[in-house]
Amino acid sequence: MLLLKVLSGSQAGTEKVARRFPFRVGRQAGAQLQLEDPGVWEDHFSVEFQPREGFILVARAEAITTLNGEAVQQRVTVRNGDIIGAGSAQVRAWLSPARQRSGMFREALIWAAVIGVTLSQIVLIYLLT
User: Fold this and answer.
1) Among 9, 64, 82, 113, which residue is least crowded by beta carbons within 10 Å?
2) In whole angstroms, how large is the CA radius of gyration of the chain?
3) Closest of 28, 30, 6, 29 to residue 17, by C-alpha
4) Is residue 68 part of a domain?
């Protein structure tokens, strides 16, 4: 998953996790991350996930899009910590933290097994003596 954090503009501080791709950024209502800043197009750019290549930034040809200050013409690979410029807004791309599953059931099962083995050993020692 990719975490996009808005660094500048009217929505500075906003964070969005991209779980479904392509992840669209722009002014339009259908965009997963809507930016209303000057210079942002209706469909400014999107991020795609390619298993062999990683996260790919696909910029609209007419829109001014930068990656770490360098102009993006079409497609470029996004790496952890890269700053994407869309008009006057800047967005940082991070790998999102992994969700950790709860281990309570497994832990309770292990503790029950340890208690069961301990009690069975106590009963066995009592019967043998």
Assistant:
1) 113
2) 25
3) 6
4) yes
Which CATH number is 7's domain given? 2.60.200.20
Residue 22 tokens read as 């392509």
Q: Which two tokens stand for residue 61?
A: 């040809």
Q: Answer yes or no: is 72 within a domain.
A: yes
Q: Is 5 helix (H, G, I), strand (E, B) or coil?
A: strand
Say if CB 57 and CB 33 are below 8 A apart: no
Tokens 């290549």 sit at which residue? 53
| pLDDT 10s digits, 94-117 | 998 877 888 899 999 999 999 999
Residue type, 83: I
Contacts of 111 (CB under 8 A, 6+ apart): none
pTM: 0.72
CA distances from 76 to 56, 71, 87 (A): 6, 10, 17
Tokens representing 82 are 């890269």
Q: Tell me: the pLDDT tens digits for 40-51?
A: 999 999 999 999
- Pairing assessment for the beta strands 89-95 and 65-67 based on DSSP bridges: unpaired
